[in-house]
Amino acid sequence: MSAKFPLTLHQVLVRRQGKTVIGPLNLKLETDGVTIIVGPNGSGKTTLLRVMHGIERINGGTVSWAQDDPSKHAFVFQSPVVLRRSVAENLAYPLRLLKVPDAEVKAAVAQWLARIGLSGKAQTAATRLSGGERQKLAIARALIRKPDVLFLDEPCANLDGHATREIEAILKESATAGTRLVMATHDMGQARRLAQDLVFMLNGRIHESGKAEPIFVAPKTKELAAFLMGDIVV
Amino acid sequence: MGGNSWNSVAISIQKRNSDPTERTSEFGRWMIDIYEGLKAALWLVVSLDPELWDISLRSLRVTLTALVVASVIAIPLGTYLAVQRFRYRRFVISLINALMGLPPVVIGLLVYILLSRSGPFGVLNLLFTPTAMIIAQVIIITPVIASIAHQAMRELWAEYHDLLISLNTTKWQRIVTLIRDGRRNLLTAALAGFGRAIGEVGAIMIVGGNIDHVTRVLTTAIALETGKGDFALALGLGFVLIGIAIVVNLAIHTLSRTEREGRW
């Protein structure tokens, strides 16, 4: 169980240009494992993740962590951002920010390069990697700091099956090692493979949430039932 | 000896130009001037003409010093303006952009007034010294470098924004990261400043005074030779100036090239 939790969102509201993006919504995440946020495009999944991570300004309500140490949570974006540096330097960057000793940085970088299969490309410019490699690098860079919580915004969008499987393996391994995962996806297959808890968002609000398995078997709302069936829900 | 070789080249060209028996067209004379200019420039370089070297080295020393000082001011400033939002930010950016277009002669005049014996900094005795020329060049090129650096850093900041915010970086860490990763764009900004400074004549003529062996640089020497009617020699010096600009640009690019075939 992570020391970071519970994370409590109370009456959180985000408005942009006079329009409500999400909320008001309440959510409490307190177990370890994997929480998957699902919902159609524009339902507010990304905004909710950004609010939880603390990089999105809120217009109402409160977001409270049990122990707030921003260096202990990390974020992986849908379009992986890579620094204009080598692959190895990208991995080393978060550790250098924390002033980790050089020997430890090198050891951690070597370990993660091997884990994501990029040892042979350590000195390659990260901007030259393929989409899947970039996303693996972004996830490794987020995990190298050993965060308590990792937020992921559709990390496998636009990736092929092979890259998706590799990324899911890394995520499962991290969850087993104790990292709390909170991930948005619109890939219901991925949600079924990874979710322990499920949050269904629609029109900026949490429509349904709870343990994943019962929800997948018997959703309480007709909107989620339709979404799980693959229908278009707006 | 340097002066003698310059004079002999100039005299031979003047003799040819004033010879009434030569019936060449305007275009032909122009081509000959260029040819003679190239020959004069080549001869001055090949013969290691001490005066040319003295002037060229002074040009480089003044310009590169001004470039370093201006870059130290302008690059962090441009980057700061890219990452930091504050009340008069847009005004400051507009001001820097406007300062890019300031006439160098006016800057020269202002620096002259400040450094003249009766001016506020007259006690420093800097007027008609290379330092005065460096000060004028710094004022001229700082807005150029800052403006180009700001544009480049703004684009990089847009790319890095979410990542650096999510990593909970401090403002200083963001600026350092942007400067490090945007160094190639910043080099372009610095080269633009170098190009502006090495070719500058108005301001440094006013504050430097074009004193032989003290403040004479390539551009002021060209202005002087042109005034004397030694066009070929002026042209030759111009070719040397262009050569220096190209060589310095290529050298900086080569030395700072960090990416080779996609590897760092």
List the topology elements.
The complex is a heterodimer of chains A (234) and B (264).
Chain A: E1 7-16, E2 19-29, E3 34-38, H1 45-53, E4 60-65, E5 73-76, H2 87-97, H3 102-115, H4 131-143, E6 149-153, H5 161-176, E7 180-184, H6 188-194, E8 197-202, E9 205-211, H7 212-217, H8 222-228
Parallel strand pairs in A: 3-7, 3-8, 5-6, 6-7
Antiparallel strand pairs in A: 1-2, 1-4, 8-9
Helix pairs in contact in A: 2-3, 2-4, 4-5
Chain B: H1 2-18, H2 26-46, H3 50-83, H4 89-100, H5 104-115, H6 130-166, H7 171-181, H8 183-198, H9 202-208, H10 218-228, H11 231-256
Descriptive report:
The complex is a heterodimer of chains A (234) and B (264). Helices cover 35% and strands 25% of the residues of chain A. Chain A has 234 residues and is an alpha/beta fold. Chain A has one domain (7-82, 129-228): Rossmann fold (3-Layer(aba) Sandwich), CATH 3.40.50. The longest helix of chain A has 16 residues, at 161-176. Chain B is mostly helical and 264 residues long. Chain B has a single domain, classed as MetI-like (MetI-like fold). Chain B contains 11 helices and no strands. Chain B has helices at residues 2-18, 26-46, 50-83, 89-100, 104-115, 130-166, 171-181, 183-198, 202-208, 218-228, 231-256. In chain B, helix 3 (50-83) runs parallel beside helix 6 and helix 4 (89-100) packs antiparallel against helix 6 (130-166). Residues 258-264 of chain B have low confidence and may be disordered. The A-B interface holds A 53, 55, 70-71, 74-75, 77, 81, 83-86, 89, 93-94, 97, 123-125, 128 and B 156, 159-160, 162-163, 165-169, 173, 177, 181-182, 259, 262-264.
